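Give me the 3D structure for DUF1957 domain-containing protein.
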Amino acid sequence: MMNRIKTKPELKGYLALVLHAHLPYIRHHDRDDYLEERWFHEAMTETYLPLIEVMERLVADRIDFRLTFSMTPTLLSLFADPLMQERYRTYLDKLVGLADKEQIRLQNDTALLPLAKRYSERFRELQALYESFKGNIIAKFKQFQDAGYIEIVTSAATHGFLPLMKTEEAIKAQIVTAVRDYERHFDHKPRGIWLPECGYTLGIDRILKQCGIDFFFSDSTAVAFASPQPNRELCAPLMTPYGVTAFPRDPESASQVWNAQEGYPGDFNYREYYRDIGWDLGWNQIEEWEYIRPYVLPTYERVNTGIKYYRITGKGTHREPYRPDWAQDKAAEHAGNFMFNRQKQAEHWHHWLDRKPIIVSPYDAELFGHWWYEGPLWIEMLCRKIFKDQHTVKMITPSEYLQEYPLADVGKLNESSWGRNHSAEVWLQGKNDWIYRHLHQAEERMIRLATKHEHLAGHKKLRTGLLKRSLNQAARELMLAQSSDWAFIMDSGTVVDYAVRRTKDHLTCFHHLCDQIDREQIDEVALAALEEKDNCFPEIDYKDYVMIHRLSPIPIIPDLNEWKALQKETKHRPNVFMLSWEYPPKQVGGLSRAVHELSEALAAEGEIVHVITTSHYGAPYFEKLNGVYVHRLPVESSGDTHFYHWTFEMNLAMIDHLVRWKEHGGRIDLLHAHDWMVMHTAREIKLSYGIPLVATIHATEWGRNQGILYSDLQHKIHQTEWKLTYEASRVYVCSAYMKDEVQRIFSLPHEKVAVYPNGIRIPSSNTGLVKRPDFLNEKDKVVFCIGRLVYEKGVQVLIDTMPNILSQVPEARLVIAGSGPMEQELRNRAAHLGDRVWFTGFVDDAYRAQLYQAADICVIPSLYEPFGIVALEAMAHRKPLILSDTGGLAEIIRHGIDGYKALPGHVESLAWHITEMLLHPDQAAKMADTAFHTIQQQYQWSRIAKNIQQEYHKLTYYQPDWADIKG
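Predicted structure for DUF1957 domain-containing protein (967 residues):
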């Protein structure tokens, strides 16, 4: 009988489980008897410490999982505050004492006594866990993030509902403060953000982009009702016109957990949240009340203690004792059911989607553990089940998904939130609408003061330090008053008095500070007391509220004398005008960096280079920067702001600007257009003035979509690219592979297309200071590979070489950096090799530098590669290099001189070359030195610029203006 070959099912999609971790700023420095402060203690005990336990167990068992946490700055401030840490220790001590007393009280109750013992053990476990990291819970979460298991994103500083803020300055201040606070805790800027309440309105994406945010989460209606209607529906993220990606909430998975009637947490086997001994005891017996009284508030208000003995049991009032074993079985069953449904979703979407779908399932973090006691266990079971059987669905973080699929459809999102009716209704109705006139007035006052004192000038009587402290504290009080929690509480009708008092208190403190600043009479003692009371965001900066100068609709240099002076300065030699929709500090993709590097390199060679680009917040409309004349034009969009239509508005602005330049006597001797977005400007100016045009095609729509153009938009872009190459006298590409592609798809003559590779900046020579990654031993001979984990990158071939390599070099250790759809398959393929193959997951720039420094050799085993910037990185780090003899890679090195070229897909060829380098390190080092010399000679921007400069000179010559001849 023939053995049937079993093939693993194809991965159909991804699951992003997102936990929104938030508490308002409920620190009260003078008292510890506030009911609201117990929210923090309960969240720590029932949610955040149990989630850390879950992740520690998963890591210990080598379960590769992915979770995404959004952690609000106010919650981080509570985590990090020494006062709150000490109060939490006291809270845990009291819980342990109460649980011990419960064992005595229930010594004759055979049903409840085991639960009392369980609570006593449980609270002691949490004490030990908390002390194991000395109360620094942020450092613990950071550890999981640094290891690649979780991604942490930020939120607005005080979780203010952004769509109901009046001014752009107030929204920006909330976001900038959050980004700054995140960086303080996690040592790098956040890539993503949780918009409070998922509240989105037009323009927020522009502010996010200005603050360096790449993605955010939205309600499903934001994407479902976007304009134009998204091609991929809710199966993939949607990019806004400003280049920020929105991940929509998946309604189906949300309902399975959240639904009040049918959601998992309502199962009869789970612990009942509302039956707590803080409420059960002492209603009829004085002895019971005296027993429980020390564990309620000093005001004798009843509260939850966290000790609950009953399960939900049924829909009536009858309750039976909690059975942990039943609850654990049910959590496993529900985890399996959740995974099964996500698999069916992914399979359904995969049939028609052009990429693997992503199911985004966001929840309040405190649902897990606090409201649903078994929630953390359910997450653990889900992670284990997906890891064990992840052939259909795999867990992923948003950043990993964007690394795999950096391109998305573009659309204008619908205004929405994840609140009632998907609108702002919860935060704006009859019970809370009164707060906004006061908050809006405070915004405007803060902006006026910040703008007036932007440079801390104008006050003769006030010391600069005191004035700055007062302005910063005013900003802090305004942000605390803006917290969306206060309006939410007023709507829900829970602790309304507290929410009203907090709103009024913060606004009162804000106005008192502003009055003192205006009078130039700051009470330093009162200020210090307020700083002690509300001490969040130590790096807050009032200047974030400085008035934003709105963009002028006329894109010209306002001073005509400066305009004339500039033209006189640039009139003596040919002027090259680069056209690019993005340029630093605006940086959406790699185009910005390429144009920036090339333009400055050309300027360094003596060319007069102008860059015509679009405006960006904080950047001047015009500047001469490192020899380049940068013209940044505001774009007044009209009608539909879909990116494709926005580019048309951008081209109108560029054409108008260049026509004005010519009409005022300026020179334009050559146009250099970068990609399709600027085609209309390039063609119009070329035809109007007879100016030579060259174009660089950085990528093609045909290539991005593997030769299949699905939508009308893709066909339009493809047609625009062809038209640009048709109009250009010369077309530049980065590799011979790209040359063949553009010649073929655009029917271009061979001599019209020239290859100028991408350049690279050589890292600084301080590599000796880079720390070696902790997982590596000193004796390890590190074979390093970095890239997206997809089939065409050939990592599977590299793994298959390891047995052969280890037989000759036992110290060899393969380190694979990056993530992608094949990651689990590759991990399984390498499992038998133990720690000789190490997967790092996604790495940031700093960690990437560490890995390069630790590498003995670098390997790029691609089966298909258009260029290979990774090869240049390895060469720039002076690391011996082995790559596949394929595509653009084959053009980079000379075999046996700069490195080795192995046969693509050939295990023995690749293994021999790797072994040869490891066994002969001196020879390998010589090749690395030669390769380093090669990139210095061929892949430095200065050399590339000189070659392009020669091309320019063939097309440009001096044409004196008639005004010069008449003069």
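DSSP finds 34 helices and 23 strands in the chain. Let me know if you want a second pass.
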